[in-house]
Amino acid sequence: MNCFDEPMLGEESVNYCINPRCKHRPNPDGFDNCLACNTSLLINNRYRALRKLQHGSDSTEIFELQDLEDGEYGCYIPKILKVLTHNSDPNVIRLFQEEEMILRYLKSLAVPQVFPGAYFTFETSNGNNLHCLAMEKIEGQNLEQWLKENGRVSEERGIDWLRQSAKILESVHRKGFFHRDIKPSNIMCRPDGSLVLIDFGTASKITSDTYIKKYENRDTTRIFSSGYTAPEQENGAAIPKSDLFALGRTFVHLLTGDRPNDLVTTATGKLMWRDLAPQISVKFADLIDEMMAVESHRRPQNPSTVLQRLAEIECCHLTVANLFGQGGSKLNFLKRYIRWTRINYRLASLGLGVSLFLGIIGFKLFPPQWAVALNNCAHENYTADRLGDAQFYLNLALLLEPNLGEAHYIQGLIFEINRDFDSARNSYKKSLKDLPEKSLNNLARLDILEKQYSAAIPRLQTGLQLVKEVDLTLPGLEGAGILGSISRFAR
C-alpha cells in the first residue's frame, strides 16, 4: 500500500465504481448504480467510494470512503477501502483476510485501525466477488513522498524516525507478528510528526515452525520488495530479523535520497552508501550497517537492541558544542518573529551561552544526586518494559557516575533480555561492589546457562553467605536450593 492520501486522479466524482473491470468508473452524485457497468455504488450497505487513490499494489486498489452508518465505532473517522482486484491465488486471499485480524489484534499500536465488519466481500454486476477491507485513513505523507518533497533527512530526524519505527516494530514483534514488507512507502508520517506503519497485507505470525518449511509446503507466498527485502526472505525463509534488514535499507534511502537498488553493492552484499550521507555520524551509520548485515546473526538481536543503540548515540551527542548549537538554532528561530537589533541579539546570545555554561557546570557539580535520579527513571522504565527509554536514562546516569552499581545492574538485565550474555556478565561484574548478592546470583545464573557449574557454585556460596549476614531468609533458602541442584550436576 503505497499511499493513503494521493490527490484525485483528475476525476471529480462523489461516487466511484470499485469494479476493476468497469470502463468508466466515476459517477455523478444521486445514482445507486454505476452508469457504465450497473455495479452498486452502495458498498456493503454502508459505504460509498468518493475517489480512487493510488494503487496499493499490483493486486489491490485503494479508495477513500464515505461512511453512511452512524454508530459507536467512529463513523466520523476518515476511512479508506482496500480492494483485492486479483483473487485467483488462494494464498493472496488468505493474506488479505489475515490483515484484518492482525490489525484488530494490534489495535492499540501505531498502525491503521479497523472496525467491526471491516472485512467483507462485494459482488459486482458481472458476478465477480471482490475481497474488501475498510480501515482508518492515515492523514499525512508516506516517507517516500516526504523524501521527494524535502530531500534527504538529517541525523536528528533520522534518529527520531528510526526510534519511532523501532518502537512500533518492537511492539508488533512482541504481539507475535512480523511485517515482511517495510519500506519508505509503507511508513506514514502524520501532520504531528508521529509515524504509522501501514500495509500489513504481507504480515505473518511468528511461530516455532521455520518459514522455509512452510514455503516448501507451499503454504505461503513469497514476499519481495526489490532493494529492501532481506536475503533470507528472498529465499523463502523470512524471520523477524528480516524486518530489521528492511528497516535499515529504508533508512539508507531516507538518509541518502537514493534507492538501495541504485547504490553500489560489494561482492559480499554490503551496500556502499556512507559517502552519500555525510550529514550523519559514524556511530549512526554503523548501526544502519549492522541492521543491513547479509548474515542475520550479525544484525541487532531485536528492535529493543536498536533502541538501546540509539540511546547510546544520543548520549554521545550530549556535548557542550551541541548544547550551544541547539541554543543558537532557537535564537535563529525566534529571529523570524522578533525584530532583533544587533546589540540585543548579541546580548541574548551571550545570556544564553552563560546560562548553558552554568547549567553544564551544575550538571557536573552534583553528579551523585542526578545520577541516582536518572537511574530511578531507568528502573521505572525497565519495570514498565520500556527498554529503549530505560537505556536512555541509564546512559545519562553512567555518563555522570560511571561507577554507579545500580545502573550497571539494570544494564545487565537489559543485556540479558537482548540475549547479549557477555555484555550482561561484564555489567554484573561492575555492579558487584554495590549489589553483591544480586550480582553474584545473576552471574551464577549465566554460568548455569553456559553449563559452567564449577564457576556457579562458589558464586552461589558467596551470595548465600552474604544473604545470611543480612538475615534475608527466603532468598537464602532459594539460593540453597539452587546450590544443591548445581552440586548434583557438578559431581
Describe the model.
By secondary structure, the protein is α+β, with helices and mostly antiparallel strands. It starts with 14 loop residues before the first strand and ends with a helix. The relative contact order is 0.06. It is 48% helix and 12% strand. It is built from 17 helices and 14 strands. The N terminus and C terminus are likely disordered. The strands form 5 sheets. It has a 5-stranded antiparallel beta sheet. A 3-stranded antiparallel beta sheet has the order 8-10-11. Strands 1-2 form a two-stranded antiparallel sheet.
Work out the number of β strands.
Answer: 14
Give the overall shape.
elongated
Structural class: alpha+beta
Tally of DSSP helical segments? 17
What is the oligomer described by this structure?
single chain
**Roughly what percent helix?**
40-55%
Output the strand order for the largest sheet: 3-4-5-7-6
Unreliable spans: 1-13, 208-221, 323-343, 470-491
Query: What is the straight-line distance between the termini?
Result: 61 Å
Radius of gyration: 28 Å
β-strand percent reads 5-15%
Main beta sheet strand tally, sense and closure: 5 strands, antiparallel
What's the average pLDDT? Answer: 79
